[in-house]
């Protein structure tokens, strides 16, 4: 259980694909003008990441090294096509709002990176957990930036335009770095206090 909690903490905070690794920035910056857009693209990306990790992990012993990346892209493209058809059938308004960014999930570096770095080297169950964790971290970042931009746009119209996306992501990264810095300072201060108390 502790390992699962640690994995979620890693995916949501320490190795978040969008916030730390800065992968998948094109959809992150272009689509997140509203919370609903962020939610839609986040759920689509999460589902593709989970299933692609499972399929890459399940087939990793039969994929030759020379053709592994094209095979990963083929798997991801098939899943993205299915996801796009689901959006067109059940969520047509959201599909129109997201436009080309659903098919562009195929080129999302975060998904291909997790397939190459993790799923191709680990068992299916662990790869599914990794897909859930990393996909959730990316989806939450999309939703948070979408909600922030939507709220700020009520007083500052620039927030829903492309510069607002860069500004929102910069604020999110700055906030994360500030929180991490304070945690590190607190951790560093504890041994010093105990040494001073022992004197």
The biggest beta sheet reads:
none
Classify the oligomer.
single chain
Q: Which secondary-structure class do the elements indicate?
A: mainly alpha
Q: Unreliable stretches, pLDDT < 50, 5 or more residues?
A: none
Question: What would your notes on this structure say?
Answer:
The chain has 199 residues and is mainly α. It has one domain. The chain contains 8 helices and no strands. The chain has helices at residues 2-14, 25-31, 35-59, 68-90, 92-98, 109-117, 124-152, 162-198. The protein starts with a helix and ends with a helix.
Characteristics of this structure?
mainly alpha, single chain, 199 residues, 8 helices, 0% strand
Q: What secondary-structure arrangement, pairings included, does this model have?
A:
Layout: H1 2-14, H2 25-31, H3 35-59, H4 68-90, H5 92-98, H6 109-117, H7 124-152, H8 162-198
Helix pairs in contact: 1-7, 3-4, 3-7, 4-5, 4-6
Summarize the structure.
The protein has 199 residues and is mostly helical.
């Amino acid at each position: 259980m502790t390992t699962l909690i640690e994995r979620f903490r890693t995916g949501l905070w320490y190795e978040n694909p969008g916030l730390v690794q800065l992968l998948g920035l094109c959809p992150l910056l272009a689509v997140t003008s509203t919370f609903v857009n962020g939610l839609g693209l986040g759920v689509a990306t999460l589902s593709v990441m989970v299933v692609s990790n499972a399929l890459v992990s399940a087939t990793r012993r039969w994929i030759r090294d020379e053709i592994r990346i094209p095979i990963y892209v083929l798997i991801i493209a098939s899943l993205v096509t299915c996801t796009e058809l689901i959006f067109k059938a059940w969520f047509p308004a959201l599909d129109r709002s997201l436009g080309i960014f659903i098919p562009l999930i195929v080129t999302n570096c975060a998904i291909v990176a997790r397939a190459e770095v993790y799923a191709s080297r680990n068992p299916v169950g662990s790869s599914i957990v990794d897909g859930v964790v990393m996909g959730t971290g990316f989806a939450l970042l999309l939703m948070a930036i979408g909600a922030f931009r939507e709220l700020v746009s009520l007083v500052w119209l620039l927030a829903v335009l492309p510069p607002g996306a860069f500004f929102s992501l910069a604020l999110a990264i700055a906030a994360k770095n500030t929180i991490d810095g304070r945690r590190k300072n607190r951790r560093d201060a504890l041994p010093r206090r105990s040494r001073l108390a022992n004197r």
